Amino acid sequence: MNRAPALFAKTRDLEVRIDEFLDKVAEGGILFERGMVLLLERGVAPETEQKMQQLIQLKERCNDLRRAVVNTLYSEMLIPDLRGDVLRLLSHLYGLLDSLKNAFQEFVIEYAEAIDRQDAVDAVRDLVAVVVQSVQAAVLGARAFFRNPQAVRDHINRIRVYESEADAITLRLKTALFASDRPLEKKLLGRDALAVIDGLADLAEEISDELSILAIKRVL
Amino acid sequence: MLATGLLFLSSGLFLGWSLGANDAANVFGSAVASRMLRFSTAALLCSVFVVLGAVTSGAGASAGLGQLGAVNAIAGSFTTALAAALTVTWMTRAGLPVSSTQAVVGAIVGWNWFSGSATDTSQLSRIVATWVICPLLAALVAAGLYRLGTALLRCTKPHLLRLDASLRLGLILAGVLGSYSLGANNIGNVMGVFVPAAPFTELSVAGFSVSGTQQLFLLGGLAIAVGVYTDSQRVMFTVGGDLMALSPFAALVVVLANALVLLVFASQPLSEWVVSLGLPPIPLIPVSSSQASIGAVVGIGLLQGRRGLRQIRWGVLARIASGWVTTPLLAALLGFVLLFVVQNVFDQQVVQPPG
C-alpha cells in the first residue's frame, strides 16, 4: 500500500472511506443478484434469508460511511466547489443500495410466488443480471468521477445501454405474461414484480444523468 | 524633524493601505472567494510576506520609478502620494477598476509637470510599455502553466480529494510567492516617491544595519499589511471570479502567473542574469498586479478556444481597459492641482530648486 505524506493523511483516510462506500454499493449489487437467483431457484430458504441479512448489514455500514464522509467534507471544508455535488452523488448511490435491499425484501415477502414458470424464471434471471450490470456501471462511473473524470462518459453510456436492455426485457416479459392463460391476480403480481426490478435500472440511469453533469464540472 | 517626516509620510501610508486593501485580492482573492482558504490565514501570510518582499527586494523596482522623476522635497512626495492614493480611492469607490502603479506614475508625471522638471521619456515609455507587456506576459505564462498542469493531471489522474489538498497547498505557496513579489515590486509605488527625501537615517541593531530606505519600505509594508487586514476581505469576495468563472486549478494558475510576472519585474539577480546572456536588461519597475491577474485570466480563457472566449465577460474587460487610460491622466491632473494648493495655500515647499 502506498503511504501518503503526513500532509495528505486526512485526505487519504477520506479517500479510503469513499472507496469502501463504493465497494459496499457494488457488493450490494452482487448480493442482490445472488439472492434473486437463489430465490428463483429454491424459493424462500435459509440461504435467501441469509442474503437478506447481508444486504441489511451492508446498508447500515454504507450509511455510517456516507455520514462519516459528509461530516468530514463539511467540518474540514474540503472540495468547496464540489462538496454539495459529492454529497448528492453519495446519497443517490446509498439510495440505490437501499432500493436493492427493499426490492429483494419485497420479492422475499410479496413476490416469491409471482414467477413460477421455468421460461419466465430464465428471463427474470437475465433481467436481474442486466439490472445489476447497470448498478455496477453506476458505481464504476462514480469511482471514475473521483479519479478520472474523462472516463465517466464511457460508464454513463454503459448504464444507458443496460437500462434500455432492462426495459426491453421487461416489456417482452410483460407481453408474454399478459398473453398467457394465468389468472389475472397472478398477472398483476408478476407485472408489479417486474416493475420493481426494472425500477432499479431507472435509478442507475438517474445517477448517470447526475454523473454526466458532475463530469463536465470536474473537467472545467 | 522625524515627527514632521512621519506626518508627511502619512499619504504614502494611506496609499499603502489602499494597495493592501485592493491588490491582496490579486494574490489570495480567488483562494478566499472559492473558500479554499480562510481569510485569516490568507491575511496573515500575505502581510508577513509583503513586508519581507518590501524590505529585502524592494529597492530595484523603486529605483526604476525614481528614474521617472525624483520628487526631491518631502512635501512634494506627500502630495504626489496623496494624489495617487485619492485617485485609487475615488476610482475604487466609484466601482471603476484601478491600478496603483498607474496612479503613482501619473502623479509623478504631474509633479514633473508642476515643477517644470523634464520627464524621462525613455523611462516613461518603458513603464507604459510594461502596461502592455505585463498582461501579455502574464497571459503567456498562465496559458503555458495551464497547459502543463492539465497535461500533468491527465497523466497522474489524482483522486478528487488529493487534487483538492494539492491545490490548497499550491494556492498557499503561490500566494506566499505572490505576496513576496507584491511587496518587492509594489513597495516602489507606496514609498518610491519618498526615497529621495527619506527622513530616516541608517540604524544598527545587534550587528545588523538597516538603511533609511529599508526602514521606509518596512513602514510601507506594514501599511500594506494593515490594508490587507482591514479592507481586503470585501474586495477578495467581489473580485474573485469577476472577469470569468475560474475552477480552483485555474485560480492557482492565475495566482502563480501573477506572482512570477511581478517577480520578473522586481528581481535584480534575474535582470543581471539576462544581461549576462547578452540580452537587454529587464526593466525593474513596479507593474500592476491587477493587470497581471487580468492578463492571466484572459490567457486561460483564450487557451480554451471558443468556449473560453464565451466565458470571458468582455464588458468587464473593456471597463478595466478604460481604467488603464483614465487612471494615470486623472492622477497627473490631481497631482498638479494638489501641488499647487499645497504650495500656495499651505505654503509648503513641494519642489527643491536645483543646485
Question: What is the fold's blueprint, element by element?
Answer:
The complex is a heterodimer of chains A (220) and B (355).
Chain A: H1 9-42, H2 46-75, H3 83-111, H4 118-147, H5 152-179, H6 184-219
Chain B: H1 2-33, H2 39-57, H3 59-66, H4 74-93, H5 100-115, H6 121-156, H7 160-191, E1 203-205, E2 208-210, H8 212-239, H9 248-264, H10 268-276, H11 289-303, H12 305-311, H13 314-344
Antiparallel strand pairs in B: 1-2
Which features would summarize this protein structure in a list?
heterodimer; A: 220 residues; mainly alpha; B: 355 residues; two-stranded antiparallel ribbon; 13 helices; 76% helix
The total beta strand count of chain B reads 2
For the report, how would you describe the main beta sheet of chain A? Answer: none
Chains forming the largest contact = A-B, 21 and 15 residues
Integer tally of domains of chain B: 1
Strand content of chain B: under 5%
The helix content of chain B, as a percent range, equals over 70%
Cα shape of chain B: globular
Global mean pLDDT of chain B? 84
Largest sheet of chain B: 2 strands, antiparallel
Fraction in beta strands of chain A: under 5%
Gyration radius of chain B, to the nearest Å? 20 Å
Q: How does the overall form of chain A come out from the CA principal axes? A: elongated
Order of helices and strands of chain A: HHHHHH
Name the helicity range of chain A: over 70%
- By DSSP (H or I, 4+ residues per run), the number of helices of chain B equals 13
Unreliable runs of chain B: none
Would you kindly provide a written description of the structure presented here, covering whatever features stand out?
The complex is a heterodimer of chains A (220) and B (355). Chain A is an all-alpha fold and 220 residues long. In chain A, 85% of the residues lie in helices and 0% in strands. Chain A has helices at 9-42, 46-75, 83-111, 118-147, 152-179, 184-219. The two termini of chain A are 31 Å apart. In chain B, helix 5 (100-115) runs parallel beside helix 13 (314-344), helix 6 packs across helix 11 and helix 7 packs parallel to helix 9. The longest helix of chain B is centred in the middle third of the chain and has 36 residues, at 121-156. Chain B is globular. At the A-B interface, helix 1 and helix 4 of A face helix 7 of B.
